[in-house]
Amino acid sequence: MRFPPNVRLACQTQVEREGVDLSRIIRDESDINLYVGIDAGEATQQLGEEKELVMFFLDIRNFTTFVESHPPFDVIHIIRKLFTTFQKSIELHGGKIIETAGDGFYAVFGFERELNVAVTSAVKAGFDILSDLEKMNESYFSKYFEHYIQIGIGVHAGPAVGGNIRLGSENHMVVMGHAVNVASRLQNATKELNNNFIISACVFHLLQTTLAEYPTTSIQLKGISKPMQVYLLGKPYWAHDKR
């Protein structure tokens, strides 16, 4: 049935002590094809695997004004140029882009690395992206498009479940969990805090390298019950495009 080595059928399980809770993934016949048969794909990674991961969310700021004032071909060209550069930094530091949506994406670090190593890699990737973007703004975007591209980055770490979803003939990686939602909220908070690179306190304290003194604050994120301590690693946004 192509199950991975850490998966056993329920009929092979022996409960040795009290306090064990079991929950069926397959609830009725409508669930069976998700895990067994052609629609399940070549492997059973779609069962999901929980691991401590680092979530990295990035979004281009105020891109709507650029879209409104430029031909669609220019917009696609800019997105392609930016994402190609961003992807190189993400992959160079061991991350993987999971999903893109319009003018943003999120990546995950830690699939094949320990959490503290993945945290340091994600932060380094963020700094590299901001540095590359500054160079491109000066030498390219301001020169040819009279526009200054700005981005927001949010990074958080925590338990998440990664697996594949079969869509058509292809498997698509998904990563889900509370930590993913927190990282997304942190990226949104870059506007409120006027800083283009924000990380959670847990990320900051897991870093293997000693960072300089960065300001810290507490913020109430939408949908999160308690205020969260964050560190501001970036710079304030420009109020207007550089001309």
UniProtKB/TrEMBL annotation:
CDD domains from the UniProt entry: CHD
Main location: membrane
Membrane topology qualifier: Multi-pass membrane protein
Domain of life: Bacteria
Annotated PROSITE patterns: GUANYLATE_CYCLASE_2
Molecular function GO labels: lyase activity
Keyword Membrane set for record: yes
SMART domains: CYCc
Listed EC numbers: 4.6.1.-
Localization annotation: Cell membrane
Keyword tags: Cell membrane, Lyase, Membrane
Gene3D superfamilies, sorted: Nucleotide cyclase
Membrane-spanning parts: none
Chain ranges of the Guanylate cyclase domain: 54-187
Protein name: Adenylate/guanylate cyclase domain-containing protein
